[in-house]
Design goal:
The complex is a heterodimer of chains A (about 230) and B (about 220).
Chain A (H helix, E strand, L loop, with lengths): L6 E5 L4 H12 L6 E4 L8 H6 L8 E4 L2 E4 L1 H11 L10 H26 L2 H22 L12 H6 L1 H13 L10 H11 L2 H4 L5 H20 L1
Parallel strand pairs in A: 1-2
Antiparallel strand pairs in A: 1-3, 3-4
Chain B lengths: L3 E5 L4 H12 L5 E4 L7 H6 L8 E4 L2 E4 L1 H11 L11 H27 L3 H26 L12 H7 L2 H11 L10 H12 L10 H14 L1
Parallel strand pairs in B: 1-2
Antiparallel strand pairs in B: 1-3, 3-4
Helix pairs in contact in B: 1-3, 1-6, 4-5, 4-6, 7-9
Classes of the chains: A alpha+beta (about 230), B alpha+beta (about 220).
Chain lengths: ~230, ~220
Amino acid sequence: METSEELKLLGFWVSPTVARVGWALGLKGIKDYVYVEEDVMYNKSPLLLQLNPVHKKVPVLVHHGKPIAESDVIVKYIDETWKNYPLFSQDPYEKAKILSFAKFGDKLYADAFKAMWSRGEEQEKVVKSTIEELQKIEEEIKGRKFFGGESLGYLDIALGWISYLLPIWEEVAFIKIFDPIKFPGIALWAENFLSHPVIKEKLPPKDRAVEYFQERRAFITSIIYG
Amino acid sequence: MAAVKLLGFWASPFVNRVQIALNLKSISYELIEENLRAKSQLLLESNPVHKKVPVLIHGDKPISESLVIVEYIDEAWSDGPSILPSDPFARATARFWAAYITDKWWPLLTEYRTAEGEEAKAAAKEKFFEGLVLLEEAFVKSSQGKGYFGGENIGYLDVVLGSLLAWLRVREVTQNVTFLDKTKAPELAAWADRFTLNPAVVNVLPKTQKLVDFINSFTKAS
């Protein structure tokens, strides 16, 4: 029986990559761990810098004193260590398809984030490619409740940010990418995803998140556009 | 036994990654050379999302993304020698470094090549060597005194980093910089020679002159 000192998660309240780890732990029924909120914007703790010296980022999971960084690496570690509620199909090919598609999701994430802070022609261009990429996600979810089928899986965790963060970025940047009329499959998935008890309890408060990204956007645009 | 095809390009280090993994498992496969300026129907159908090589086609099942393919090979041919370690923490460490090498460190080489001005070039070079030192430390920890990241035998991280050695050596020639600096990374320098001569690798990594000619053919064409 593990004590709470044996599992620790260093995180940041609004980070979608931290949320992934929280969701994975939640789905496995692991509640007994220490959560450490890091002030990643202004004051990273010595602990974080010691545990993730290469990237100096959250999430970091510490298990039996050993740190693991990078959300996809952590989620796979969780899945391989706690065998209940498997996050992947047992079939190597199905698993490979999921992992390959998750990589595509990373590209969508980077483009959507850029669409949030960019301006003018640059923004128009990246908004257009983000919409095209979202179309592939729509094709992938089609007809299914979750990407994992009847229950949540790795891909739902990896793409979860689309359901609640993308609308916030759209609001903050006055852009439209995720039109529920054009993406009915994703819209339905988002509803199911966000109402799942394990997911719900790890979502950041919306107003605070909007404020946070307004600030982030202002900061980034001041650096890039002067 | 379902047939194995690899859609690839001889000069691509990411294709080389997959070839080495297939060789480690003694899997026979058909290599289909793609013309990346005129991608085949098979490639576009097999990898509609990324439209890139490598694509492994096992029977009729296409798998894309080099790191995903290597893990797939390890799992689908589970009775061959293991590529990834079995311990979950060791696997996490290997995956962490694989992502660092592929997403952060390797692009620094391009950053150096394309940097404009002395200052920018010096900065990029410094970042590259900082990364090299990190990888040297990772090698020492992972190898535990043996010859490879994987210990006695080639493992996942050997394949991930080793597949880049041909291009690293070419860039040493074309940029006139010793990127695999043995004063900064003595263990890695020794490992590089050892890896390149390993039977699973020796016929896969393109020879330096062939790659130099390949680069020159591009610069002439442009």
